[in-house]
Amino acid sequence: MTKSTWGIDPTHSEIGFKVKHMMFTNVSGKFNQFEATIANEDDAFETSKINFSAEVNSIDTGNGDRDNHLRSADFFDVENFAKLSFKSTSVQKVNEGLYHIHGDLTIKDVTKNITLETEYSGLMKDPWGNTKIGLSLNGTINRKDFGLTWNAALETSGVLVGEDIKLTSEVQFVKQ
User: Fold this and answer.
1) What is the span of the domain harbouring residue 124?
2) Dihedrals phi, psi of 125, to nearest 5 degrees
3) Which CATH number belongs to the domain containing residue 105 in this structure?
4) Measured between alpha carbons, how far is 27 from 90 in angstroms, rounded to an integer?
């Protein structure tokens, strides 16, 4: 068996999320600074060990005031918890091109097991001869499970920020 190592291509990758605002629309955001690696045997995706981390301070929702609030102790508390991370525990093939990545997500020193539904592109060569893989990852977490509990009641009932966070990422990895 040959061990392969893959590094994320940050210029062709986006780590994003969506959350309900005022109970009826989604606000999207992303992390601009992140790192990720994959190690596997014989390029077989189901043997992959995946490690990911993001600099929470790089959160970007397109609104500076909102981003600063998310960085504050009300939410991510970046002064005390600078990074969030994910480490896979297993990769399960569902059918051709579709996998479930199971792993431990850590936010604010709280670790929970999550599952990411993953579309896997297979191996491909870019125009410069680099071997790449592409992944589309989706999942849902409850932000309160990770200590992100701030909210405000709405006058018409309901709350300002939804509990469920939809994780959405499009990433490319390059064989090292």
Assistant:
1) 3-175
2) -105, 135
3) 2.40.128.110
4) 31
Domain count, the chain: 1
Neighbours of 106 (CB within 10 A): 16
pLDDT, tens only, 4-45: 999 999 999 999 999 877 677 889 999 999 999 999 999 999
Q: Which residues pair with 28 in a beta bridge?
A: 18
d(CA 13, CA 136): 10
For the entire predicted model, the pTM comes to: 0.93
Q: Region of 43 please: left (phi>0), alpha (psi -120 to 50) or beta.
A: left
Mean pLDDT value across the chain: 94
pLDDT at 29: 96
Tokens coding 8:
């994320």
Show the tokens assigned to 66: 């909102």
Where do runs of H (alpha helix) occur along the chain? 64-71
Residue that is written with structure tokens 């064989």 in the block: 175
